[in-house]
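Hey, can you fold this one?
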Amino acid sequence: MIKIAVTFWVILKSLWFVWLLAFIVAIVPILVNILIRKIKEARLRRWLEKHKKLEDWKKLDGREFEKIVALIYKDLGYKTKIIGGAGDRGIDIIIRKDGKKWFIQCKQMEVVLPKYVREFYGSVVSRLGEGEKGFLVTTGDFTAEGKEFVKDKPIELIDGLNLEELAKKL
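Sure. Predicted structure:
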C-alpha cells in the first residue's frame, strides 16, 4: 500500500507542470471575464458622468438603460444584478443592501400606463418571499391612476426626474 502511495506521489510530483497548466487554463477565463466586466463598468461610468441628463438616457436602448439604472443603485451602495431579458419574470434588476433584497423594472416611456404598473405589481407579489419591494423606474412619468394604484402596495415609482436627481447625488 505504501509503495502505491509513493509511486502516486512521484507521478504527481513529476507532472507539476501539467497541474500548473490546468490551473492556468481554469483561472485565466475567469480573470478575463472579471477584467472585461470592470472595463465595461468603467466605460459606462464615464458615459454616465458626462450624461447625467434624462434626455440622454431616453436615447439609450432598453438594455443600456437597465445598466445605467443598475450603476446608479450600485453607486448608492447596493449590490446589483441585471437579469432583464427573456424569462426575467418582470424583473430587470435585483438589488441588495443590508441583508435585504429589492426588485427593479425599467421602462423607457414618456408615460407608463397603469397596465405596466399592475404587471410589475404581479411580478413583485409573486416574489415577495424573496424580496422587500419593487421599484418601477422610468425615463418619463406615471399616470395618476398608476400612482394611486401603488399607494398601499410594496412598490415605489421612480419617474425620470427622480432618477435624474438620484444620479446627480452621486
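The beta strands are 79-82, 93-97, 100-107, 111-112, 134-138, 141-142, 155-158. Let me know if you want another pass with a different chain boundary.
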